[in-house]
Specification:
The complex is a heterodimer of chains A (414) and B (217).
Chain A (H helix, E strand, L loop, with lengths): L2 H11 L1 H35 L5 E5 L3 H8 L10 E2 H9 L3 E13 L2 E5 L2 H6 L4 E4 L7 E4 L1 H7 L6 E2 L2 E2 L13 E7 L9 E4 L1 H10 L30 E2 L1 E6 L4 H11 L3 E4 L1 H54 L4 H40 L17 H21 L3 H7 L1
Parallel strand pairs in A: 4-10, 6-9
Antiparallel strand pairs in A: 1-12, 1-13, 2-11, 3-4, 3-8, 3-12, 5-9, 6-10, 7-9
Chain B lengths: L4 E12 L2 E12 L3 E5 L6 H9 L6 E6 L2 E2 L5 H11 E4 L11 H12 L5 H10 L15 H13 L5 E5 L7 H17 L3 E6 L10 E4 L5
Parallel strand pairs in B: 3-8, 3-9, 6-7, 7-8
Antiparallel strand pairs in B: 1-2, 1-4, 4-5
The chains are: A alpha+beta (414), B alpha/beta (217).
């Protein structure tokens, strides 16, 4: 016999209202866990995907859009820039590595990206099967594309115009699949990679240049914006991913790029920080909701413990008669409360991870970057002491009342 | 004062405000004796029991239990002392419903701060004829069984004093005398000094030593 056992038995005898309080706490904690997992994983993913990329250069527009489309392939591109401009940029001594990308078409909703092999190497991706592309109209599929489309090297497919599903098919120019990448956990998983010349070739066949500046859901062809120079279409790229040669470039290069008429430079680090601040507002609202749930659980716990007191007066009297001090009576109540909140917190942690995993799978099906519930964070460890604090605070009043039980008076009444 | 006294009370008074609810000049109980405390309702029987168990600190006077004055002790020390040296049988047998019968006995050892001894608990239940109910839920016990278990629990730590508060209230004559016999036997077996507080006239003939408390004015 000990206090822990006594408290467990007591909880088992009156489980309903106590479990309700624990459940509320579990919901509150689960909300916090989901938020924590989402924010940390999105932040971590955004940072990881942008590693080694100091600057993204593309057409003028929203810098956030440029980053989202250029690095993460989430938003619509801002437009195209002349290849000549991109090449001039790559020659600058401040530029260490420059990776030009050509966007505009898609296959089954996955973006077809014209890119040099450097791009694949940048993310340290390796082949699962086949080989890397060597000439135009050869394609390497990201792991998720290959899985979804059930295609293997040797197969072929045609891209459709626009970066969303439902664009016109470029039926006359099929791509040959030569390789499939292993899963990398980077944007490459969801991309179809091909030499940038393929992108040019597909659109030359259509008598137009690479058209990327369309909204995501707009499959219509628009007339070209500029660069219709005679019959020869101008070569264009959509973005150039740049790694600085030296830290000094961070000061000079963005200014230099932005001074030019058509180009815009955006810093991933800066834009990610801005994005996280924007997400932060939503997160704060959810946080407030979680705090509300946790406060409600504390109130429910208080009521649950208080309501058991009346029925336990004689138990408390007997314990005192058997030698229990007031402190021990107090402790029994607190231990009960702590047991409940520990249960609630552990349940909440499990529920939170389950929810995050479920939401992650749903998001992945929707084509968003995947979130996993199968990883833990150090911050989550704080939730347990938080639950204990709540258990302690909620138990304080009932425990004091229990300790003050008038045993002599109770016995006199018989 | 005999050093052998199980209980020795001197100049005891307890007041609530101006009202004196208990006043006792001197009462000495030797070890092994059996005493009856009688008196009408409101005479201070309950208060006396609360003072002797150390639940209540008297306004004045000394209360020596096996030689130790518990009146001036700190409350937590009185609690510990009560757990180890005083057994109490309340009017209505009350067992913790969340524990089994034998766990109720182990609880008494735990709360008194002595080693928990399951074998001792079992032998005590056997002596009181309720060995087969050791794992039972208290709610399933008859009143008689519950009373026996309560007695076992009150005496498991071999207390110097065994106090019983109105043990025969609401009992028929047969049950009344059976209960008194059980109290005497149990007290004798655990070498405890028995003190029974009652206003039940049927009990009086059975006790040689009686303390009659008068109703306070």
């Amino acid at each position: 016999m000990n206090l822990l056992r006594l408290a467990t038995r007591e909880l088992r005898a009156n489980p309903l209202s106590a479990l309700l309080a624990a459940l509320l706490l579990a919901f509150g904690i689960a909300t916090l866990v989901v938020l924590l997992l989402f924010v940390r994983q999105i932040e971590g993913r955004f940072t990881r995907d942008a590693r080694g990329i100091d600057l993204v250069v593309g057409a003028k527009g929203s810098p956030m859009q440029l980053i989202l489309s250029g690095i993460y392939h989430l938003d619509a591109p801002t437009g195209n820039i002349p290849l000549a401009e991109a090449e001039r940029l790559a020659q600058l001594p401040m530029v260490g590595k420059a990776i030009p990308l050509g966007l505009g078409d898609s296959f089954m909703g996955f973006r077809i990206v014209g890119a040099p092999i450097d791009y694949i190497e940048h993310y340290e991706a390796t082949l699962a099967t086949g080989r890397l592309y060597g000439k135009p109209m050869e394609a390497v599929l990201g792991a998720e594309v290959a899985r979804t489309a059930a295609l293997a090297p040797g197969g072929s497919f045609v891209g459709s115009h626009g970066i969303a599903e439902g664009g016109d098919a470029h039926g006359d120019k099929p791509y040959q699949i030569v390789g499939i990448l292993k899963p990398t956990g980077t944007p490459l998983d969801r991309l179809v990679l091909t030499p940038i010349e393929s992108v040019w070739a597909v659109h030359e066949a259509h008598g137009e240049h690479v058209e990327a500046a369309e909204p995501v859901h707009d499959g219509d062809h628009k007339p070209g914006q500029a660069h219709e120079q005679g019959g020869e279409p101008a070569r264009e790229v959509t973005v150039v991913l740049i790694q600085y040669a030296s830290p000094l470039a961070a000061v000079q290069l963005p200014r230099l790029v932005n001074q030019s008429g058509v180009l815009q430079a955006a810093s991933p680090a800066f834009e990610i920080a801005r994005l996280m601040r924007l997400i932060g507002v939503g997160r704060d609202v959810m946080n407030a909701f979680a705090v509300l749930l946790i406060a409600a659980s504390a109130a429910a716990l208080l009521v649950a413990l208080l309501s058991t007191l009346r029925g336990r007066q004689y138990d408390i009297a007997v314990m005192r008669l058997l030698g229990a001090s007031r402190a021990k009576i107090f402790a029994t109540m607190v231990i009960e409360s702590l047991l409940l909140t520990t249960l609630g917190a552990l349940g909440g942690l499990a529920l939170g991870h389950l929810l995050a995993e479920g939401l992650g799978l749903w998001l992945a099906a929707e084509g968003q970057p995947a979130i996993s519930g199968r990883q833990g964070l150090m911050e989550e460890l704080w939730l347990l002491p938080l639950a204990w604090l709540i258990g302690l605070v909620a138990a304080l009043l009932p425990a004091i009342r229990a300790a003050r039980t008038d045993v002599a008076g109770l016995l006199a009444k018989g | 004062m005999s050093p052998n006294a199980a209980l020795c009370i001197e100049d005891l008074a307890h007041r609530y405000g101006e009202r004196t609810v208990l006043s006792l000049d001197r009462w000495q109980v030797e070890r092994g004796e059996a005493w009856l405390v009688t008196g009408p309702s409101g005479c201070g029987k309950s208060t006396l029991l609360a003072v002797v168990t150390g639940l209540l600190r008297p306004t004045s006077g000394s209360v020596r239990v096996i030689g130790q004055n518990i009146a001036p002790m700190q409350e937590s020390r009185r609690d510990r002392f009560r757990g180890q040296h005083i057994g109490f049988v309340p009017q209505v047998p009350h067992l913790l419903a969340t524990l089994t019968v034998i766990e109720n006995l182990l609880l008494a050892q735990f709360l008194a701060g002595v080693a928990q001894n399951r074998a001792l608990a079992r032998s005590l239940l056997a002596r009181l004829g309720v060995a087969d109910r050791a794992q039972a839920n208290p709610a399933s016990l008859s009143r008689g069984e519950a009373q026996r278990v309560t007695l076992a629990r009150a005496t498991i730590n071999r207390p110097a004093l065994l106090l019983a508060d109105e043990p025969t209230a609401n009992l028929d004559d047969a049950a009344c005398s059976a209960t008194l016999d059980l109290l005497r036997e149990t007290a004798a077996a655990s070498e405890a000094t028995l003190i029974v507080a009652t206003h039940d006239a049927r009990v009086k003939p059975g006790f040689v030593r009686q303390l009659a408390l008068a109703a306070s004015p």
